[in-house]
Design brief:
alpha+beta; Antithrombin, Chain I, domain 2; 9-stranded mixed sheet; 7-stranded mixed sheet
């Protein structure tokens, strides 16, 4: 009998700023950021991570039924790297090809993930960033010690034995999720299939305070022009802020920093609310993206960003299948590095919560042509469908991505 493997990603993202109108100091009061040094091979892996992020985002954007969505490509990459340690043959090839790791040795991949998972936590003491991995094994099930050991050593994975046939199994795992996401994601798992023998989970919690804060007194009611043609009133945060910006005939974008400027949010606003697919397909490619990042210009401009809160839960299975990861989800799966018995991956779910307000951002997870120039004295107001990304700046790695079509 083929046994079930469940992978779950629980992510929490929160962005926040001060609620008062305190004058912002002309200097950054936060502790100086610590950049992450990368070897040539590690930089290549970051580029592959971002390629995977763009591919996944494009796939979700084209196929999801959700009007708004947010994903953590980094979380999925970590989780699939963990399970890849126990996969062989075509199953392993498909996972690694999709992640862009085909040319890298397994241990190099593990070393890279271990380094990034550690160093990302150290770059900004003022930003709350936590990551946790866990492996849940059925009490009557035996895993190969090598699989457990490699994930303990490289991913700091907690390993627990659990009776999946017990009605309390889901509740126990949900308690772990809640504890890792500041209680913002409390019940990602409704139940556990009694045939499940193994579950791997990854949780990320991010809470960042804007470096240059919005004043609450500048937040005002404004119209958001939704993708379906409706006009809805939102709370628009406004500021004349120092940001990096980039403008073309097709879209505008700005980058606003958190804390000591180690992390930032990039907001991309198509000039036309119906041009979202064009921006997704043309802008979100590694070559074009890296070119934009090099050409962003620093300066004070008027920006507007609506306050929003988004809860998102979706299975990633169909998206990953479309990206070439097929074998893991059917009876041809080869997870013989995990156990000698047959395993098949039957669930890969991502649950996220994100809140953006004057205080900053909080998030959790249980991935064109035209005239170019700076924004100058122009406005960049996200009063129509927009894309947002949260990244670490010294490496450029993307942690979260999302699309807002309607508020």
């Amino acid at each position: 009998m083929r046994k079930n493997v469940l992978l779950m990603i629980v992510s929490l993202l929160m962005m926040a700023c001060n609620n008062d109108d305190t004058q912002v100091s002309p200097y950054n009061p936060y502790k100086e950021r610590v950049d992450i040094p990368l070897t040539t091979a590690e930089l290549s892996m970051v580029n592959q991570n971002n390629q995977f992020a763009f591919n996944l985002f494009r796939n979700v954007a084209a196929n999801t039924d959700h009007v708004n969505f947010t994903i953590s490509p980094f979380s999925i990459q970590i989780l699939l790297s963990m399970i890849s340690n126990g996969s062989h043959g075509e199953t392993a090839s498909q996972i690694n090809n999709m992640l862009g790791y085909a040319d890298f040795a397994v241990q190099d991949i593990n070393n890279y993930n271990k380094k990034m998972s550690h160093d990302l936590l150290e770059v900004d003491p003022s930003t709350q960033l936590t990551m946790a991995n866990s492996i849940w094994i059925d009490k009557d099930y035996s895993l190969k010690p090598s699989f457990i050991d490699v994930n303990k050593v490289n991913y700091n994975a907690e390993v627990s034995s659990l009776d999946f046939a017990d009605n309390n199994a889901a509740s126990i795992i949900n308690q772990w999720c809640a504890s890792q996401t500041n209680n913002l994601i409390k019940e990602p798992l409704k139940s556990v299939d009694s045939q499940t023998q193994l579950m791997l989970m990854n949780a990320i919690y991010f809470k960042g305070e804007w470096s240059e804060k919005f004043k609450k007194s500048n937040t005002e009611r404004a119209i958001f022009y939704a993708v379906d043609g409706s006009k809805n009133t939102v709370n628009m945060m406004n500021d004349y802020a120092t940001v990096l910006s980039y403008v073309t005939d097709h879209f505008k974008m700005f980058e606003k920093n958190y804390g000591n400027e180690a992390f930032s949010m990039v907001v991309i606003v198509p000039n036309d609310k119906d041009a979202m697919s064009e921006v997704v397909n043309d802008v979100l490619t590694p070559t074009y993206w890296n070119n934009i990042m090099d050409k962003m210009q620093d300066g004070k401009i008027d920006i507007g960003l609506p306050k929003f809160r988004l809860n998102f839960s979706d299975s990633m299975v169909d998206y990953l299948k479309k990206m070439g990861m097929v074998n893991a989800f059917d009876t041809s799966a080869d997870f013989s590095g995990i156990t000698d018995g047959g395993l098949v991956l039957n669930l890969l779910q991502q649950d996220l919560h994100i809140e953006v307000n004057e205080e900053g951002t909080e998030a959790a997870v249980i991935s064109m042509g035209g005239n170019i120039g700076s924004a100058g004295n122009k406005q960049i107001i996200a009063d129509r469908p927009f894309i947002f990304l949260i990244k670490e700046k010294s490496t450029g790695i993307i942690l979260f991505m999302g699309r807002i079509n309607k508020l």
